[in-house]
Amino acid sequence: MAQAASDACEICEGGTSHHYCQECDQMFCDNCKNSHLRIKTTKNHTFLNERIVNQKEKPFCSEHDEPFIFNCVDCDTVVCQICAVKKHNRHNMSGLKESVLKLKGQLEHVVESRSTALRNDIQQIKQGSKVYKGDAQSAIKIISEDATRLKDLIDAKAKALIKSVKGNEVRNCDILSTVYSEFMDIFNKINKVKKTITDTNNMSDVALLPKIKQLQAQIDRLENKKVPGMPTFKYNRKQISQNDIENLFGRVSYR
């Protein structure tokens, strides 16, 4: 009743609208108007060439110049007292003010109910978001703590392994240094005997014989050492997969 006119028929939506039914508050094309007037319950409906644009500005029936006092529930339109008798006889009628108050009350109830439900939903979402953010921050904190703890354990293990390697290196190097010194001492003594032999080239055989026996005795007294087994070292690197790393951490579950 307070709608602007439309070019299209509101019934078939195909023809061009020229006729406004006051009782139905709808625009009809020629064909739909004729069909409407052939229906028993709507044959007495009143048609105008244009729709009432603003019902508030025209609260009177344009046909009878009477105020609208009823609401025809069947036709969903306001009618005056004369239209109620002539055109809406036996229709489900109610007082206009009564209808307004009833519909307004129903609307207010629906709006309040929807508003309350939405406030509850919004509060639930707000609270849920707060809890979710708290859970996320807590998970991040725990993951960071686990990562730090694992790093510390790895660093401690690495330090222990390095200390073990260094200690083993020092011990074995000390042993090898001692063995080296012993072999160098024997080598130097042999070189000394070798030089003495060279120096005896000009000696007479009479003098050389006891000298050679003396040098032979020196050589015999030298220990015939063998090179000890050399220490070895090897670090067998462990192949760590992504799955191994993931198994060090807990599981994050999402819903």
Structure description:
With 255 residues, the protein is mostly helical. The chain has 2 domains: 19-91, Double Stranded RNA Binding Domain (2-Layer Sandwich), CATH 3.30.160; 115-248. The chain contains 5 helices and 6 strands. The chain has helices at 30-38, 81-86, 96-199, 205-221, 242-248, and strands spanning 19-21, 26-28, 47-48, 68-72, 77-80, 93-95. It is rod-shaped and about 170 Å long. InterPro entries: TRIM45/56/19-like, Znf_B-box.
Keywords:
single chain, 255 residues, mainly alpha, Double Stranded RNA Binding Domain, 3-stranded antiparallel sheet, 5 helices, disordered N terminus
Biggest β-sheet strands, sense, barrel: 3 strands, antiparallel
Low-confidence stretches: 1-5, 53-57
Number of helices: 5
* Overall helicity: 55-70%
Strand content: 5-15%
The helix-and-strand class reads mainly alpha
How many distinct folded domains?
Answer: 2
**What gyration radius follows from the Cα positions, in whole Å?**
57 Å
The number of E-state strands comes to 6
GO molecular function, one term: ubiquitin protein ligase activity
Protein name: B box-type domain-containing protein
Keywords: Metal-binding, Zinc, Zinc-finger
Organism: Mytilus galloprovincialis (Mediterranean mussel)
